[in-house]
Amino acid sequence: MLPVARLTASSRSRRVPAGRPGRPRRMNRAGAALLAGALALGLAACAPDPVSQSYLEGENLGYIAGEWAVESIPESERGEPVVWAGTTETGEELSSDDVAGDVVVVNFWYAACAPCRAEAGDLEQVWQDFKDEGVSFVGVNTFDQADQARAFAEKWGVTYPSVIDATRGDVKLAFAAATPIQATPVTLVLDTQGRVAARVIGPIKGPSILSTLVRETLEESA
């Protein structure tokens, strides 16, 4: 039960005799602090994503912090190939057909997300390490317009394309049908058939884990 309910249950309203106007009572500092904390917990309980201990991270415009997780999905348990299409920050059309047959890394991000900024260099490093080995990288920007995405790429040295998905969200919906997209950032690794083979919920925390997931997925088709 939330503290709001306990506060309400333990507080009794004072009866005001007939004919006498009631005077508003001042809440002492302890009561105000308790109420503020209770309301904060109540708001946190209404967070839209079911990640434990979720909370809104300041300037991050809806970044939901939750449990960090890495998951590798056995080949026999993967779903159907994800079919997606969109327009990149440079105005080019990009779809699952364009990267068919590659191992594909898909990163969901937006410019004001602090963990997205922190992992940008690591993603670029993994892309540079694998781009000549049948691996494609695709960003999916879930919030910004093209000019913001281009500015982000220039500032953080990102050279792979990003689909601008803020208006309709078609790309995110396509992937959400195959795997939960609970938070931002999320990074997926697709096998050569376009199926979700692995995912990292939250920032990739350095290049090594993602590199291992990409390498393992590449070796499946060797």
Features:
222 residues; alpha+beta; Glutaredoxin; 6-stranded mixed beta sheet; two-stranded antiparallel sheet; 10 strands; 33% helix; globular; disordered N terminus
Name the helix and strand elements from N-terminus to C-terminus, one letter apiece.
Answer: HHEEEEEEHEHEHEEH
> Main sheet, how many strands, which sense, barrel?
6 strands, mixed
Q: Mean pLDDT score, rounded?
A: 78
Shape: globular
What strand line-up does the widest sheet have? Answer: 3-10-9-6-7-8
Radius of gyration, Cα only, in angstroms? Answer: 23 Å
**How many runs of DSSP E, i.e. beta strands?**
10
Fill in the CATH topology of the largest domain.
Glutaredoxin
What is the CATH top level name of the largest domain? Alpha Beta
CATH architecture verdict of the largest domain: 3-Layer(aba) Sandwich
The fraction of residues assigned to DSSP E strands is 15-25%
Main location: other
GO molecular function: antioxidant activity; isomerase activity; oxidoreductase activity
GO biological process, one term: cytochrome complex assembly
Domain Thioredoxin: 41-222
Secondary structure blueprint with pairings:
Layout: H1 3-10, H2 29-45, E1 55-56, E2 64-65, E3 69-72, E4 85-87, E5 93-95, E6 103-109, H3 114-130, E7 135-141, H4 146-156, E8 162-164, H5 170-176, E9 186-190, E10 196-201, H6 207-220
Parallel strand pairs: 6-7, 7-8
Antiparallel strand pairs: 1-2, 3-10, 4-5, 6-9, 9-10
Helix pairs in contact: 3-6
